[in-house]
Specification:
single chain; 406 residues; alpha+beta; 3 domains; seven-stranded antiparallel sheet; five-stranded mixed sheet; 9 helices; 14 strands; globular
Length: 406
């Protein structure tokens, strides 16, 4: 099974300069190739990896600066672009900005990479054109190296090895028949149908204050100045720690959940669409912008999509099946009798069924998680939104029986 191993690099000044140069060359190749693909598409023609790779070889004759970067790293950049265009469409792939994109490049030929351990805390790897680079030995690679990716996050450099750890995914979970539903929220990051609430603060009060002051300082700096670059670097260091805590939290939750359950059911949430820029409603542009901005920040802070990725990755080692279901009305449906009504959810935390003869009451998030689990991989039989208000598309409720018609 292929797995990733990430280590912090200790580059020499010369190696750091070379990595910056390689990253910039790969960024230039990406943007040039993407521009070419878009121009071909506008004319109704196609451009793919093979002809672009041949043109890259010719471009090296006219542009000697392209020869500074390893050839297979540039070819891998074109392969990544080709895959991105196939997955998302040529006009949906993003440009790599010099200011917003962190330099990175990949060495796809694992046979050219050597790794040695120097001591208890340090190791080194030999990478093409970079030579021997030292890195912090936090764990053994644990398998055959297939590729290596060098990247930069803030002021630190990292190397990520793709290794074959020689493990196989189990055909069956150790506890077959177990299942759990997970409701992702803004008050708690993850709530399970078993009644477990998973959450932790990712940013401290001191970091919030420091980040706010850095943003104020950034607004007073001049674009392109050295002070602006220093301020941005300081902001990235603060948010880098927050991102690391969020990733660690998601990995821990995923490990616990997949170890105990053979089936994990999630809502099929379009996180990117849900956290889109706050620009108001179609009927009234510019309204409720502050409220939407706060919701977007809460969604992104809890790491909904990162938790989904962590569950999918952890499930490979336990034989767990991860299923996504239609999220419609999971917060308004009674998990005991199935009655759907806007009034069932009395508040953000309280759910009380209004159906005659039911009266089921529990935490609203736990009730939603049970509905997600009960979906069992099948779409919920209603279409609508995720909010606590009733949509015009919701199934009608009979006034005589107080239930949805069958």
């Amino acid at each position: 099974m292929l797995s990733g191993r990430r280590y912090r690099l200790a580059l020499t000044p010369e190696q750091a300069e070379m990595c910056e140069e390689f990253g910039n060359i790969c960024r230039s190749v990406w943007n040039t190739a993407l521009h070419q693909r878009r121009e071909y598409r506008r004319r109704g023609a196609w451009m793919n990896y093979a002809p672009q790779c041949a043109e890259l070889a010719d471009a090296k004759k006219d542009h000697p600066w392209l020869r500074a970067a390893p050839s297979h790293a540039l070819q891998q950049t074109l392969k990544d672009l080709d895959q991105a265009c196939r997955d998302h469409g040529t006009f949906q792939v993003r440009w790599r900005s010099k200011t917003r994109w962190s330099p990175s490049f990949r060495f796809p030929m694992g046979q050219l990479i050597e790794v040695e351990r120097l001591g208890r805390r340090w190791g080194r790897a030999r990478l093409p054109k970079l030579g021997w680079v030292s890195f912090r030995w936090s764990r053994p690679p644990g398998g055959e190296i297939r590729s290596a990716t060098v990247s930069r996050k803030g002021r630190d450099g990292f190397v990520s090895f793709l290794v074959d750890d020689e493990t196989t995914a189990p055909e069956r979970h150790a506890m077959p028949g177990t299942s759990v539903g997970i409701d992702r929220g803004v008050q708690f990051a993850a709530i399970t149908s078993d009644g477990d609430f998973h959450d932790r603060p990712f940013v401290t009060a001191g970091e919030e204050t420091r980040y706010r002051r850095l943003r104020q300082k950034l607004s007073r700096t001049k674009k392109g100045s050295a002070n602006r670059r220093k301020t941005i670097a300081a902001m990235n260091r603060v948010m880098g720690r927050v991102t690391d805590r969020r990733a660690d939290f998601c990995a821990q939750v995923a490990s616990v959940v997949t170890a105990k359950n053979a089936l994990v059911v999630l809502e099929d949430l379009k996180t990117r669409n849900m956290s889109a820029s706050a620009s108001g409603t179609v009927e009234a542009p510019g309204t409720r912008v502050a409220r939407k901005r706060g919701l977007n920040k809460a969604i992104l802070d809890k790491g909904w999509h990162r938790l989904e990725l962590a569950l999918t990755n952890a499930a490979r080692y336990t034989g767990t099946r991860v299923v996504k279901v239609n999220p419609a009305y999971t917060s308004q449906r009674c998990s005991a009798c199935g009655f759907v009504s806007e009034g069932n959810r009395e508040s953000q935390a309280v759910f009380r069924c209004k159906a005659a003869g039911c009266g089921h009451a529990e935490n609203a998030d736990v009730n939603a998680a049970k509905n997600i689990r009960n979906a069992g991989g099948q779409p919920v039989s209603a279409c609508g939104d995720l909010g606590t208000t009733r949509s015009a598309k919701q199934e009608p409720v009979s006034r005589a029986t107080g239930r949805t018609p069958s």
